[in-house]
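Pipeline run #58 for the internal structure catalog. This entry was flagged by the ingest filter as a single-chain record with no existing model, so it goes straight to prediction. Upstream metadata was stripped on purpose; only the residue string is passed forward. Reviewer on rotation: M.T. Logging verbosity set to normal.
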Amino acid sequence: MRTLLRFTLVSLVSLVSLLLLTACQDSSQRAKQSPTEQAAHRLEEHLLAPCCYRETLDVHTSPLTTKLRAEIRNQLASGQSPAQVEAALVQEYGAKMKVQRPEQLGSWLLLISVVVGGAALLWIAKNGLRNQQTESADDQSVRTTESIQASSQDAQYEWQLDQDLLDER
């Protein structure tokens, strides 16, 4: 039981560490990029590929998304603001292109995984406590049975002793 609890705890700590490491790595890589590249990447994360509307421009691979990524960088380099570039793309491809997701998705995932992991630890601890109580009750039952048997043997021994003493008289 303790091994399972340790394994769960180590798994939870590893998951949280991995999420934090990934978030730190992403932010350190973005810090090394030029402001235009950073703005382009942020914009690509918030716009869906108009060919399928399933993946964002930063991860989708198609000739159209390659063209759009280059177009975004050219427009930003020419001095247009990210809002202007986004507005032009939305006007051309439709409002469906805008992603509707929380800005801090990573924070939400981290919070959810900590809550789920904590609930799993509580469940494991509760079941472990219940198993210990059951084992304790079983041990007590065995001890009670043994003491009844011992009492029965003592009573039988005393009765036999009394019979022997009576016979000697």
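catalog note: The chain has a mean pLDDT of 77.
catalog note: The chain has five helices and no strands.
status: ready for reviewer M.T.
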